[in-house]
Amino acid sequence: MNNIHKLFKWGLWSVAVLCLSGVQVSCDSDDIDADAMYTFTGETVASFCQNDPELSDFYQLITKCGADALLEVYGHYTCFVPNNDAIAAYLSANNKSLDDIPAEEAQKIVYNCVIRGTAEYTSQEFVAGSLSSMTLSERHLILSFTTSADNRREIWVNGQARVERLDQEVHNGVIHVVDKVIQPSEMTLLEVMQNNENLTIWAMAYEASGLNEGMEKLYDESYVNTYGSDMYQYGDYKLHVPTSRRYGWTAFCEPDELLKQAGITGNTREEILVSLENYARTYYGSEDLGNYRSEKNPLHRFVAYHLLNRQMATNDMVFDTPAALINPTYADKLVEYYETMYTYRIMEIKAGNKINQQSNGDYVGIDEANSNIEALNGYIHTLKNILVYDDAVMRNDVLHKRIRFDAMSLPPQLTNNNIRWHNVDISDANGYTVTPDYCGEYFTFNDACSCLMWGSQGWAAFQGDEINMKDNYDFTLRLLPIPPGNWEFRIGYNAEGWRGMGQIYFDGIITGTPVDLKIGDVQGDARTGWVADESTADDGVENDKMMRNLGYMKAPESCWYAHDNIPLRDWYKALRYIVNQYSFQDYGAHKLRMRSVDFAGREFSIDYFEFIPVDMIRDEDRL
């Protein structure tokens, strides 16, 4: 995940302020032709295109579809504008003239290359992978980098359009000139696989499983925005409201060569499918053989474990920005967990996009050069190794550890609709809110509750964001379906005097007395037992034990509190509350319900959660 730096232009439009911070980026301006970079003009996106001889045809498209009114007003636009040669090539390929293009097609061309966000993307924000904000046509743009014959860095958009001029700054945004009209794929994941000569086996298996049929819908047409607007005012909070509910998917696919090396071969489609099914039987059993659409069939399970119900490019899989929220000592230990479409099975992705890394160092790698393959409904990433859910390896090694996950990582709707990792210090609002049923089974709440999703680099929160449930709340979260075993469950939070008390229900069963998130708000609160490590003789070892006896723990050391520039562990308000220990006999969904019990209009903070095997608690690290 890569957030862009916030480049705000305040005050008069005639003043341009460019603030660049020392953040490592993938686009090195020293490698790019100086003539192609950094120009500021006192114009808007629309007027710049109108006055630039190389962009005059694009301006005609802007006016034809009425987008000139949009691109003349204040905002934060990033535009990858095709030059006249690019548009001429497009017209020639489609046997049209500029006058022949209808307004609908003109709008499509324009909207496919324009991003409207809370800030602009200059070349300093370019990294390999997707730009985090979507275009006006609600598609992500993928950036990649190559080296030219004269050793210059080249930047490509969607692998098809080369950037010829960078960073043409205007009042309401920035323009990058490209040499091709940007045309996002109109093919589904299945169609992309079928047209990729390296994914023929995967295309057969994916189609045979029937899973593709449930992954072709782009939007939930049943969604109703009950707020009636894209903004909602809650007290002093101005909140974005999603106007649609978009679906998205990610497919991890082994290329044909890799599968053939594993003995998955055949002369006909059926022979290949049987061969793959036989390979999968080692890991997924032998039920319903030949019935590839059955969820119990080994081929079906093999395919399902490769699929995620959220759309993520390779730079969106693991939290890594803002860098201010990461303890630099532990940057290589960042990790995310995602539930796959293989029922109740999760995968782990570590920094460097290492999937399911074992204690011996083995992991499934992603072939970055052959990934971020765009489809209408998601991305395809090519694997370097075969991905399977080996029950013994996953239960006893990969997932036999403390599993920490951010609350916003649970509902795929928050990823697919650009809410997760897009709510930290946004310029035009305080955060987001959603309707009570927006996240489906993953997160629901009652009508009497108000939901605020927000984030700040100056806040003591895991990954910088949290969900605040306000008023008379009663909400339910579907947690990660961790493997069977004996686990301890914890809630991470930041204590504040305005927090409230909530009664916990775990899997429908009331758990202990209500948890009070005001506890710990005052340094030295005896109810938590928190003492700074530096104030102890043993660097906090005995204090950790004492806090556990009280049902609390300090926050993780691997997280960073940017406001005070210290590990989150060293902030007395940052705590983990130990809920209980549980014995899970089988794979399954687990639900956390929290109900307000103080009826004082106070809030409950949902930040992050942890599961840890009980047998690992004694020797648990501080990370």
UniProtKB/TrEMBL annotation:
Ranges where the FAS1 domain occurs: 42-182
TM annotation in the entry: none
Annotated signal sequence range: none
Pfam families named in the record: Fasciclin (PF02469)
The protein's name: Fasciclin domain protein
Organism, as annotated: Paraprevotella xylaniphila YIT 11841
Lineage, broadest ranks: Bacteria, Pseudomonadati, Bacteroidota, Bacteroidia, Bacteroidales
